[in-house]
């Protein structure tokens, strides 16, 4: 049996089927949006402990390597369980990181990489990333970088 709905012939039961499809589409759209939001990079730091272990001041950087306006830093950075480091760029901050304990999960637009105790990695001019500690123990790394002296 065919009923007319808004002057278009619609088979009996088609309205219910199309409503089900719309409902399924809305649920799927919500889940995809929720998943995308859950995967969005963090915008703020949480659960961090940062300790400056040493630094080379600007005047020494100028005298030793001719680099004005910068200092060399050595820091111990701990990401506590559930903590995160916000998305940032290393375009002007060359960095070497040595993970001493735990696992730093590095996020990039291309995916994730696990850096565990004993791993060393660099942050070069093309690096844009963020970090999580998804483990149950603090994850600590030694970070050596060149930063503006200000």
Uncertain stretches: 1-5, 30-37
Instruction: Write down the CATH topology of the largest domain.
Output: Jelly Rolls
Q: Please trace the helix and strand order, writing H or E for each element.
A: EEHEHEEEEEEE
CATH architecture of the largest domain: Sandwich
Mean pLDDT: 85
Name the CATH class of the largest domain.
Answer: Mainly Beta
Range of strand content: over 45%
The structural domain count equals 2
Q: Give the proportion of residues in helices.
A: 10-25%
Give an account of the 3D structure.
There is one protein chain. This protein has 150 residues and is an alpha+beta fold. It has 2 domains: 2-39, no CATH class; 46-148, Jelly Rolls (Sandwich), CATH 2.60.120.10. 23% of the residues lie in helices and 51% in strands. It contains 2 helices and 10 strands; from the N terminus they run E-E-H-E-H-E-E-E-E-E-E-E. Strands 3, 4, 5, 6, 7, 8, 9 and 10 form an 8-stranded antiparallel beta sheet that branches. The chain has a two-stranded antiparallel ribbon with strand order 1-2. Strand 1 and strand 2 (8-11) form a beta hairpin. Mean pLDDT is 85; it is low at 1-5 and 30-37.
List keywords for this structure.
150 residues, alpha+beta, Jelly Rolls, 8-stranded antiparallel beta sheet, two-stranded antiparallel sheet, 51% strand
Brief synopsis:
The chain is an alpha+beta fold. It has helices spanning 14-39, 58-65; strands at residues 2-5, 8-11, 46-56, 70-89, 95-101, 103-108, 111-116, 120-123, 128-132, 139-148.
